[in-house]
Amino acid sequence: MEYVNSVENGEMAAIWLKAEKEATLKKFYAEPGRVRLQPANSQMQPIYVEPDNVEIQGRVIAVIRQLV
């Protein structure tokens, strides 16, 4: 992860949701009046939040997975 405080639309980011006091990894999309947090898993629904509830913690630059 690269520690930054802003990302471009469509980038995978580590995001702190202030009201919920939780972090998530989602694709970030700024939309008029809201932010859409899109999961990589197409079976999951996006999360819509107010822009002031979002704090970008960093940009995901690599995903390493171990297959057992």
How would you describe what is shown here?
This is Peptidase S24/S26A/S26B/S26C domain-containing protein. It holds the Pfam family Peptidase_S24. It comes from marine sediment metagenome. With 68 residues, this protein is mainly beta. The protein has one domain: Umud Fragment, subunit A, CATH 2.10.109.10. Helix content is 0%, strand content 44%. It contains no helices and five strands. It has a five-stranded antiparallel beta sheet, with no helix packed on it. β1 and β2 form a beta hairpin. It is globular. The two termini are 24 Å apart. The model has no long low-confidence stretch (mean pLDDT 95).
Layout: helices, strands, pairs:
Elements: E1 12-17, E2 22-31, E3 34-38, E4 47-49, E5 54-59
Antiparallel strand pairs: 1-2, 1-5, 2-3, 3-4
Defining traits:
68 residues, mainly beta, 5-stranded antiparallel sheet, 44% strand, globular
Give a nutshell description of this structure:
The protein contains no helices and five strands. It is an all-beta fold and 68 residues long. β1 (12-17) and β2 (22-31) form a beta hairpin.
From the N-terminal CA to the C-terminal CA, the straight-line distance is 24 Å
Count of individual beta strands: 5
| Rg over CA atoms | 12 Å
CATH topology: Umud Fragment, subunit A
List the uncertain runs. Answer: none
Helix content: under 10%
Average pLDDT metric: 95
Which strand order spans the largest sheet, edge to edge or round the barrel?
A: 4-3-2-1-5
- CATH homologous superfamily, by name? Umud Fragment, subunit A
* Structural domains: how many: 1
CATH architecture label name: Ribbon
Q: Quote the beta fraction.
A: 35-45%
Largest sheet: 5 strands, antiparallel
| Form type | globular
For the record, the CATH class is Mainly Beta
Protein name: Peptidase S24/S26A/S26B/S26C domain-containing protein
Pfam families: Peptidase_S24 (PF00717)
